[in-house]
């Protein structure tokens, strides 16, 4: 057994751990926003897809049940759009991190 290989393996594992920690920090630090209905509903979400803020234009809340149903649909659409943007942002971040490694099949 070549102990040099073990040293290289250990170094690679440490590098992978550091990259994982960086990615976790980026997930928390990445913030995306999305809105629907011409800005009636807007959401802010982090890269972990945690909803950070939900904002509803007060004019959107009417007295009829159909207004409430529309508002619920707009909220759902805004949250889903923010989730897709979070995925896109993290894909970009992962590509940037992995680009420096030149690992086969991951670039």
Describe the structure concisely for a colleague.
With 107 residues, this protein is of the alpha+beta class.
Mean pLDDT: 80
- Spatial strand order of the main sheet: 1-2-3
> Could you say what the CATH topology of the domain at 30-99 is called?
Ybab, Chain: A
Shape: rod-shaped
- Give the CATH architecture of the domain at 30-99: 2-Layer Sandwich
Largest sheet: 3 strands, antiparallel
User: How would you spell out the order of helices and strands?
Assistant: HEEEH
CATH homologous superfamily name of the domain at 30-99?
Nucleoid-associated protein YbaB-like domain
Oligomeric state, counting identical vs distinct chains: single chain
Q: Give the total of beta strands.
A: 3
Structure description:
- The chain has 107 residues and is an alpha+beta fold.
- It has a domain at 30-99: Ybab, Chain: A, CATH 3.30.1310.
- Helices cover 58% and strands 17% of the residues.
- It has 2 helices and 3 strands, in the order αβββα.
- Strands 1-2-3 form a 3-stranded antiparallel beta sheet.
- Helix 1 (3-29) runs antiparallel to helix 2 (65-99).
- It starts with a helix and ends in an 8-residue tail after the last helix.
- The model has no long low-confidence stretch (mean pLDDT 80).
Question: What is this structure's SSE topology?
Answer:
Elements: H1 3-29, E1 31-36, E2 41-46, E3 51-56, H2 65-99
Antiparallel strand pairs: 1-2, 2-3
Helix pairs in contact: 1-2
Features:
107 residues, alpha+beta, Ybab, Chain: A, three-stranded antiparallel β-sheet, 2 helices, 58% helix, 17% strand
